[in-house]
Amino acid sequence: MIATCYNLLLNIYKSPSTPLMATRLARIRFLDESARFISTVLSPLLTPSYGVFLALSISPKVLDNMGTRINLLLIIFGITCVLPMVTIAVLHNFKVIKDKRLIKRKDRLIPYITGTIFYLGAVWYMSYTHEPQWLVMFAAGGALACLISTIVNIKWKISAHMAGMGGLLALLWQLNAMDLEVISPVWMLFFIFVVIGLSGALGSARILLKRHNLSQVLAGFCNGLVCVSVMMRLFG
To answer: Are 165 and 43 in contact (CB under 8 A)?
Structure first.
């Protein structure tokens, strides 16, 4: 029914007699597609890899062998992105969840639980390969944020997308606080403002797509920011 109404409105707005409506519809579609693009590029399945990439590029880890850094990045990408994607696909195939996009709160429980396990797997791997403690704690903070999201999700739809961005900001913030950045303060400040700007864009996108309300977006961001900050600060 919704799709039928949408198609009917689309045909009306495309009529030559309603150019103003057609323009408005084009703007709405542009905003919708932009919001979907931002949500995809800044997916919580990708933010751990973004974080590791940043850590390997602006910290003393940049001095490591290139092959070693690429291997670490690919392993983390596999654990925190590929494995969760495969899990979601399998759950959808067996009709355990209705939508791969996890729009409904009830569809998120099992993927969130497995996501927490995968994050812990990343923590174990980085500990096993003797990565710096602060980097291990970045992953541990992500695992903690994912666990909190899982628990909160039982009753309330907190934003996992924003938790990922909060974690990224916390990583940059703590690298700066611990004097671990190997780039100039100007560039560090630039990266921090970029992440803040992207966080604002992502939060707006999630609200525009009606995936979350403002409270859920802010709560998700604070979840990631606090969890990663605490783990890196206290145990890193």
So the answer is: no
The torsion region of residue 102 among left (phi > 0), alpha (psi -120 to 50) and beta comes to left
Residue 206 near residue 217, CB atoms below 8 Å: yes
Task: Supply the pLDDT for residue 130.
Answer: 95
Global pTM reads: 0.88
Nearest to 42 by CA among 232, 192, 200, 190: 200
CA nearest to 118, candidates 100, 153, 142, 91:
142
The kind and range of the H/E element at 164 are helix 160-177
How many C-beta atoms lie closer than 10 Å to residue 103's C-beta? 14
Give me the mean pLDDT over the 62-71 stretch: 94
- Name the band, by pLDDT with cuts 50, 70 and 90, for residue 28: confident
Q: Give tens-digit pLDDT for 68-124.
A: 999 999 999 999 999 999 999 999 999 999 998 898 889 999 999 999 999 999 999
Compute the mean pLDDT over every residue in the chain, rounded to the nearest whole number. 91
Structure token digits, residue 108: 């998120």
Q: Report the alpha-carbon distance of residue 28 to residue 131 in Å, rounded.
A: 46
Helix (H, G, I), strand (E, B) or coil at 43: coil
Say if residues 145 and 225 touch (Cβ distance below 8 Å).
no
Other beta carbons within 10 angstroms of residue 222's beta carbon come to: 15
Tokens of 189: 């400040």
31's CB contacts (< 8 A; 6+ apart) are 208
